[in-house]
Amino acid sequence: MAKKAKKSVAKSASVEKVIENAMAAIATANSDGEKAVAALSKVAKKLTAEGKRLSKKRATLTKRKKAATAKVKKDGSADAKKLLKTTIKELNAIKKDAAKSSAAKAANSAELKGLKASTKRTKAYLTVLAKADKVLNKPKKKRRKKRAKKAA
Fold this sequence. Notes:
This protein is an all-alpha fold and 152 residues long. Helix content is 80%, strand content 0%.
């Protein structure tokens, strides 16, 4: 029978090093998460503004298309037809841009939601670990020796 190798017992220094590395990793994850949340929030703000801009433009073009259609029905001139055709072309381009913007906004929103949850979790871990360290690193209370009672 082959002998099993003895398991070595972990040394206090190595355990301490592992704990320190884990705490540093959580702190790094928290700071990276906060930076990512800030960056993606900025992107989300831009995407929201772009969506509003495209929505306004689409509404304007829809009104213009309606007016141009009425004008074509009324007189049917070449200028009116050309205006209608360019308006429809612009409107289709705006709709395509709005769809792209909406898809990008949805993807960004999903990623931002996950990052915020992770950052919240790491922040909670850090606060709990800080409180635990504070409790564990309190100095021991010194007890005074009791005085001997005087004999009456």
